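#structure-requests
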Amino acid sequence: MRLKPSLTLEDAKMMVLACDRAARALGREGTIVVVDAGGHVIYVERPDRQSPNSVEVATMKARTAAFRERPSSNLEERVKERPGWLMFPQGLPMSGGVPLFHGKECVGGIAVSGIAEDDERVAEAGAAALPASIQKAGP
C-alpha cells in the first residue's frame, strides 16, 4: 500500500494568511480557496465586499491547478492555441490557481479570485507559505 501526503486545515490557514498579506500589500482583498488533490474544498475565505460568485470561480481555478498539476493560467494559454481544451473536465482557463506539491506529488491547489491580474501572484504567495518540505516542486 502506498502512503499519500495530504494537506491539513492548518496548512490551508497558513497559506490563506499569506495570501491575505500579499493582497493587502496591493491594497486589495480577494476570495481564496484551498482544495485537496481530489478538488474538495478544505478552506474558503470570501471578504465581505467580494461577489458570492467569486467562491465558485476561485474553487474552479484551484481545481484546475490541482487536476492539471499546473497553474490555471497554463490552461488559459493552452485554450488560445487549441480551443478543444475548453472541454477539460473541472477546468477553468483563467489565471489565479496554483498547484501545491509535496515532492513531486500534487496534494492540492490554491486560488484567488477578485484581484484581477494579480490573482495568481497572490495565490503564489500562499503556496510559498507552505513549509519547505512541502513546497511546490511540480512536474
